[in-house]
Amino acid sequence: MIGIVDYGSGNVYAIANIYKRLNIDYLISGNTNELQRATHLLLPGVGAFDETMRILNNSGLKNFLDEMVLEKKKPVLGICVGMQLLAEGSEEGDLQGFGWIKGYVKKFDESLLEQKPHLPHLGWNTVEIQKVHQIFKNIDHQKGFYFLHSYFFDCSHIDDVLGTTNYGLTYASAINRDNIFGMQFHPEKSHLNGLTIFNNFSKI
Amino acid sequence: MLRPRIIPCLLIKDKGLVKTVQFGDGKYVGDPLNAVKIFNEKEVDELMILDIDATIQKRGPAFELIKNIAIESRMPLCYGGGVKTVDQAKKIISLGVEKVALSSAAIENPRVISQIANAVGTQSVVVVIDVKYRGGVSSAEVMSHNPVPFARKCEQLGAGEIVINSIDKDGMMNGFDMKLMKEIRDSISLPMTILGGAASLDDISCAIKEFGVIGVAAGSLFVFKGKYKAVLITYPNAEEKRAVLSNGGFNNY
Amino acid sequence: MINVKFENQNKLGKICTNCVMDTTDSSIYFDTNGMCDHCINFYSKTLVSWEKSLANSDTFNKTLDRIRYYGRGKEFDCIIGMSGGIDSSYLVYLAKEVFNLRPLVFHVDAGWNTQVAVNNIECIIEKLDLDLYTHVVDWEEMKDLQLSYFKAGVPHIDTPQDHAFFATMYNFASKYNVKYILTGANYSTECVRNPVEWMYYQSDVIQLKDIHKKFGTKPLRNYPLTSILWHKLYLPFIKGIKVIMPLNHFPYIKSEAMQLLQDKFGWQPYPQKHFESRFTKFYESYWLPKKFGYDVRKVQYSSLILTGQMTREDAIEKLKQPPYNESTIHQDFEYIANKLGITIKELQTYFESPNKTYKNYASQESIYKIGSGVFKLFGLENAGKR
């Protein structure tokens, strides 16, 4: 049962629709009791770091997710801002992130971008796999994924880097430590590649 | 490497899809939902949907339609038409749309760009600038504004993308207004999308050759076929897309 | 989630010993050998006429000459209705490459095109360098009319699409004085016709208007209308507009046609006949068999059996599988409901409503009966349609 965490941010319906299409059981909820049933957790996210973190803190979801992920070791996938929340903090805001994967979220340095456009990083780009993992099985790497962000995750440990993308610099566009996954791009808007990621995630 | 985007642009009027010529009367194209479903199956890079009579009819965005469209879309969506407030923008994003497009609202009340950017993030705010040349004078105007300083202002206010829509070229299928597009490209560093006048995939290649990573949007090209302008949804397949990009000098795909 | 009205479509008594039509066609009858009247009609009438057509290439060639002659100096010499399905796609290929005609390809968009259909049309007209004309049916009116049919509880809920296809083509031909309409109708895959009980005459405009009057909420201002008298009598006999079915004059083996189109044009096949329309797929694979017990595969397979393109054993085997995809049907159900602007629950209500027939509404059935009799008398109609 895939638990799509609904905390008012992110594309819950698009993700739900994908699981519906894949005939995989899912639930959308912001309620910790309901989310207990989930075997896998999805943390979508769109918008600003602090705003999203604040909602998670206030709703009790932060503590709940800490327990599910760190103690119960349920697989969790953070998408876009959802991935950034896995960090210790962000240049974009003042609040602390989950800190499940060591690192800090920074804004792209525009001076590194030789040609226009600059920010946000918008469009289809490729992900170079740094660690072989079943979550990227059967992906068409040439097609890549859809990106839409101005901040990136600066990983402290190279072991946590699952995939990288080049945009001015080479940065971690996918991260992983044990049961914890983060993807900077939007698999729910990346056609077949995205469907494959969600399917692969459900099998972990 | 980041790729140029090829974007079908659909116009909605009276709940149906239409295709206009120079923003005049539209030819009926059919049900929006089926068109979206077909574009989704064709795996388009991105889809832009503009409700063109929302503002005239003084109504807000068609949320029910947006919801149904988002359910069918596994591709990024940009929706515009009647968006004037932060709440409307937030609701649209929550329904599963990546980007909200502002047009008349950005002109009437430019501060709304910042307000919406603060609420949903800069990356989700698009400003569509409709440009028409007035009289025989070579300076283009946006309603009563000059597009170049206006585009810069939008960038400063927190827009994440600018779409330049040439009214004169709309539906004419005789090529993009490259001079106008270049002027805008030179003045801002935001992601940019050009719209209006595409007649063939070659026009798209030319735009890529000139601008590199850019969004190239088209309405008529992907919705009409042949000399009778028969309504037929088309989009380059993977092989054709590769050729379009490579003809534009982009060989990394 | 989705209730089922007919648990096992294959129960119900007798099945023909020659094809796979059975007593779900309530007016079927069998001879002493257990052969049904569809087969009897085929062997005694249809086959005779068809073999004559195939043998008599002279008459057909003369028709082609006439088409080319009357088309001289004009932009095109005939129109071909193309859905993107195998019959019409193959016909377009034959018309251009084999018959050397200059057709205008005519497509009616009723709002339910699949991506495959649209792609198939594009591939073929592109590679054959043909002109395309599309008529887009007003979706708001189409939606309302389709909902009327759901509410009417009748089996023939695909009439709004079918009626629109023909009406549009006839209207176009009449308006622009196009003398020849080519259609992909054929004996090879359609010699057994859907019983009228399953699919009542889509051209019966009296029935359409009655159902619309009772259940519609929007006036039919833009929806294209035709009538049986207009297109079977007025158009051919007064205006001289002829409908030609070339696939009956030319050897047509479905599997070979599909292979040729795939090889030459990159044409993509569909899982079943008529599946180029999302609605027709839902209607024929789910709604009709599950609500009424009418499985059109029996009609389609029987045609292929009679024309030697499928074995009866193969057909029986295939019929053991449900006609729809069990793992995705709930998505289709939801899509249909969303597109029609109703809730899943509302669609479910129509599914569970009492089954009605065409007899519950006004009709011109008597004209069809008389007309059919007259045409058969003159040998002008040979495919049995009851």
Oligomer: heterotrimer
Task: Give the name of the CATH superfamily of chain A.
Answer: Class I glutamine amidotransferase (GATase) domain
CATH architecture level-2 label of chain A: 3-Layer(aba) Sandwich
Whole-number mean pLDDT of chain B: 91
- Topology of chain A as a string of helices (H) and strands (E): EHEHEHHEHEEEEEEEEEH
Bulk shape of chain A: globular
Structural class of chain B: alpha/beta
Distance between the termini of chain A: 12 Å
Low-confidence segments of chain A, given as residue ranges, are none
Strand order of the largest sheet of chain A: 2-1-3-4-13-12-11-8
Rounded Rg of chain B? 17 Å
Helix and strand succession of chain B?
EEEHEHEHEHHEEHEHEHEHEEH
As for the CATH topology of chain A, it is Rossmann fold
Computed structural class of chain A: alpha/beta
Please provide the count of β strands of chain B: 13
Rg of chain A, nearest Å? 16 Å
Helical fraction of chain A equals 25-40%
Largest protein-protein interface: A-B, 40 and 42 residues
Please report the total strand number of chain A as a whole number. Answer: 13
Q: What's the mean pLDDT score of chain A?
A: 95
C-alpha geometry of chain B: globular
